[in-house]
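User: Modeling request: complex.
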Amino acid sequence: MFNKVTDLLRESLRSKELDKYLELFPNNMGSSGYDPWGFNIKGIENTFYLGKLLYENFFRVEAYGLENIPKEGRVLIVPNHSGQLPLDGVLTGYALLTNPYAPRIPKAMVEKFFPTVPFVGNWLNSVGSVVGDPYNCEKLLEKEEAILVFPEGVRGSGKLFKDRYKLQRFGNGFMHLAMKHDTPIVPVGIVGCEESIISFADIKPLAKFLGVPYFPLALPIILPTKVYIHFGKPLHFENDIYNEREVKTRVNIIKDEIKQLIELGLSKRKSIF
Amino acid sequence: MESNKKKIMVTGAAGALAQKVINRLKRDYKVIAVDFRTKIDLGIPVESYKVDFNKRIFEDVFRDHQFDGVIHLGRISASESNRFTRYNANVMGTKKLLDLCKKYNVPRVLVLSTYFVYGASPFNPSLLDEKTPIKAADLTMDLVDSVELDNLANIYMYKYPELNITILRPCNVAGPGVKNTFSKLLASRAAPVLWGFSPLMQFIHIDDMRDAICLAFEKNVSGLYNVAPADYIGFQDAVRQSNCRFVQIPSIPLALTETISKLMKWETLPPFLLNFYRYPVIIDGSLFSNTFGFKPKKSLEDIFNYYKEVK
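Assistant: Request completed. Predicted assembly structure:
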């Protein structure tokens, strides 16, 4: 009975628009519709409508530079991170899925804590998220996937309102993977998500007690800010350096590109809403 | 004619998988069936022994037969005994077996391990290959015997290359006669699932696993191999497709789930496997498939249809 109700609900919410995107993807899933990371078409079908509402109606996203996303083959898409919840990931993912130039279903590298949360872990996997582990990333690149990586990690998503648009420290891992696997990096600047959930403080003892990366003292609402996403030109880096200082220099090149794309978004915006 | 056949020992003869392997190989080999639980009558021409590997009399089996190969499938499962007995039988027993293989110059040994040795951790990436560190012992003491058995077989494989040891780590073996935890669960009318968790899983049909064992034994390429099809399904979908009724168990806090599991004493929800009901352990079986040209014949649908029909 429960299954029949959920199937009926799913069918009524299923967007006909989604079909035209799904038709473009090769069917390389297993017999039950899953790939090895738990992604499945049902997951996208269930979530597409919510993504559309968030993207088109709630955050009224304007996306630029989508023509920079390679039509096929491996690519690392690297945005700034913010907003307490991974709304920036959802919006960027939706932009990539509905990209009129080259729709792609990206795989997003997420915090290792998410799989421990009931429902959330499975839901994230079903829409294409995978545990942020270099081994996962390598396997996905070998399968020529588009991967969404937030090198700021929880330092970015958990940052406070006073630190908005201040890029946090970037990990070097994504650059190592890009060099080793001959993968272009597309930098992305997102403006608007940093004000969507306003956090004043991180209650660290509570976060530690609950086993979560941070616990924000935040307004208990998501504000309908207007969001701008700028995709930069793909950058290639040869696998020709041998120490972390030089890797960090290249990471900073990406960081500077993202800063410029954020500036571009901020200059376009007339109001937060 | 019978005397010209190569002679092999198959352990765990009381189990469904071993019996399928014996039935497949008995035409081409003289099979000696061994089990430490019970003496199995497999009919002529299979000779059968009930023997404890840790007793001296076990050596008589090697003295009486010059084996050309040993297929070690015998294992006491967690539901059959306590941790101490299991360690003695599974780990010390396997050591005794491998020492006797060395002493009596057995040129071919196949050891069955399990994907459980990787451990179900929330941090597991997908498609774990054979080089991935095995973490099960860190997550639960009840899998220590499985991890130690696997380690022991690996040590012997490198230390005594003349034994030509092949170690197989299969995903969930399922189908007729299989009595492991997840097979019992899918065969039951009411299956426990943890609220909000449906980890991705892999299943291999018992007939395909038999084929994999026979193929690996006969092709004789020593090494460590995962055995799993490149096909995946969410646990709750598997339960649904097997026509089981869901018994939702609270998944948080962890202590509550553990308490329920301990109090209920369900064979289908043992406390030491709780993490396997939460987190996926997806293994990469491509090395085995490519090395041995193995492709499972039975689909996931075949497997779940079987469980649907037995209800």
